[in-house]
Design goal:
5-stranded mixed β-sheet; two-stranded antiparallel ribbon; about 40% helix; alpha/beta; 7 strands; about 25% strand
Length: about 200
């Protein structure tokens, strides 16, 4: 799942986590929460059937936040959506250590390239949106994605700003990050990929 924190996920499926068989557990990562379903039965087929039934119950509660199953990654799902829609994407980032570009490099031909600019160069949401527009134009891509992390002592950590520019609109996100600084780049890149995923899913 992407787009909701562990506490929100826990609240949404708390009743399912009380199940003895199948068991349902959470594993929180930087910007992502995995839901693990494990069943015990006399045969593998019976266990898989129990898993499938529980998965459906989870989807009824959290379907809008579930991007994939098993070994699917957020970047692989975004890559498939771009391919299915014959879209391309270019990126620009600041303060992330190049985390977003490193993950987007796996998109193949759908990725028109990305650039990293100096930390704090993109210091407000308007500048982030402008950068997304500019990279989209410069690279001739359908989508322009920009993410910036800057120090925000008044917010107790870092401030994340994201802009996604499409042929139809511009979507922005701004939020604080109070976690371990070593996880900030991964968290920011996951949030940016999540915004692109949600935008493309909403077009279905």
């Amino acid at each position: 799942t992407v787009g909701q924190g562990e506490s929100r996920i826990d609240e949404a499926i708390g009743d399912l986590e009380a199940s003895a068989n199948p068991t349902v557990g959470l594993s929180a990562k930087a910007g992502q929460v995995d839901i693990r379903i494990t069943s015990k039965a006399a045969t593998r087929g019976a266990a898989l059937a129990l898993n499938a039934e529980m998965e459906q119950r989870v989807r009824e509660k959290l379907g809008q936040f579930i991007f994939g199953v098993d070994d699917e990654t957020l970047e692989s799902v975004v890559a498939q959506l771009l391919s299915d829609r014959h879209l391309t994407l270019a990126s620009v980032e600041s303060g992330t250590g190049g985390a977003l570009g490193g993950r987007l490099a796996h998109l193949g031909e759908a990725f028109r390239g990305g650039i990293t600019v100096a930390d704090r160069a993109l210091g407000d949401l308007a500048t982030v949106a402008e950068a997304a527009h500019r990279i989209r134009s410069d690279r001739g891509s359908d989508l322009g994605l920009c993410v910036s992390l800057i120090d925000a002592p008044d917010q107790g950590g870092l401030k994340l700003m994201i802009a996604l520019v499409t042929p139809d609109n511009t979507k922005t996100v701004e939020r604080g990050f109070g976690g371990h600084v070593a996880l900030a780049g991964q968290w920011a890149s996951t949030a940016a990929l999540g915004l692109a995923w949600r935008n493309m899913k909403s077009d279905e």
